[in-house]
Amino acid sequence: MDVLPSDHSLKVLEESYVFPSPGSVPAIFSLPLTFFDIHWLGSSPMQRLFFYDFPYPSLYFMQTALPNLKRSLSLILQHFFPLAGNLVLPPPPQIPYIYFKDGDSVPFIAKESMADFTHLIGDHGRHVREFQALLPKLQPATMCSNGMQKALMAIQVTVFPKAGISIGVTFNHAAADGRAFIHFMKSWASVHLYQLDFIFLNKCLPDYNRYWIKDPLNLASMFMKDKWNWEDFDSVPSDKLRVTFVIKRSDVELLKKWTARKFMEENGSDSTLRMSTFVVTCAYMWICLIKSQQNRAHDLSSLGDSNCHFIFLADCRDRLKLPATYFGNCLEPCFTAAKKSELLDENGILVAAKAIAREIMELNELGPLREAEKWLSKAMEIFKVGGHVITIAASPKLGAYDIEFGWGRPRKTEVAHIGSFGSISMAESRKEDGGVEFGLALAQDELDCVNAVFQQGLLKL
What's the DSSP call for residue 269? Predict the structure, then answer.
């Protein structure tokens, strides 16, 4: 049985604050939230973990790695300084904004852990509490002259003596989406790796210009009306196991071929829909979760042939002709649905793939922001009805395994805030190009059932 981390297995080595380099940032800076940002108000803080090999003792970490990490973070905060600021929530109907002033900083804590590093970077079930011990908490909200303010980011670096390092980051989703956050992490890592050389950053600096986000429908005010009475969701269930399901490149190709063949048999012609890696692997995971939940008869037996929902996020930077380095949120929620009976059929993967691919095709053809005024109400209605809802976070395109601090590529990355059945994170495979990783948090009985369905399904391709 795995031993959970305790207060005795973690030792605080240093607690500090990292400031942007003196004189390098504006004395005062204010950044209004767009409707893309407001969409995430009240959601759980984002939590990301990156594990690296580091076969050195803690003393070496304290003398070399820790000072270099803090120095490079201070330098990169010259360009990402809003993350050292706060989210200000003024009384309604005013729009929240990010506020940075001279003297703001990022909380930074260093710890030592005696936990099993090899165990933590595995794909098998690991207790959620093991990961929460490696993540910092955001500082509590405080009152300010214009309402309430909330910290945007905190960082924890944990050394596993003679084994590895983990970098844990907790940040407020209203400040940045996954692409913006990974941009920050890659920039920090690059400054650290290249010994603080900024030359490479000239074309990669974050763009904070809100001029790019047009809001003719006044969606920001519309969304705020739904958010005025929100409750923050900031807890991750601690009784779950985190597990990673890997779909190898060879299995991705089998899924594509299987889907193409079934479509031809059904329609007599090749698919006009693009069956990408994202489409076929998400379809496969959707079916695995539905079948596993169905196998645990008490879950869906009372729902009849209800709609099952799959919600994913589409990055709109390219679609709205924004700079690739635009910093903030720029995600459109995409809603797909299919009847449970059709998804449980022998061709269920094809049904799921067509539903996802069709939504992507419509987004590409009709453009983004379709019925944007209904994003929040549609999501609330889906979750209110209940039933089977799958949501997916992150993307293989983010390149989480390309964040290189100088210790080699990450041995493992985790989207640690994923904490309930039906919530999935997605990343590129760390082992091979073309493969995909899915991260889930499951109870033990859920894990056993999902794993059985997942493995059996791949064997049938």
Answer: S
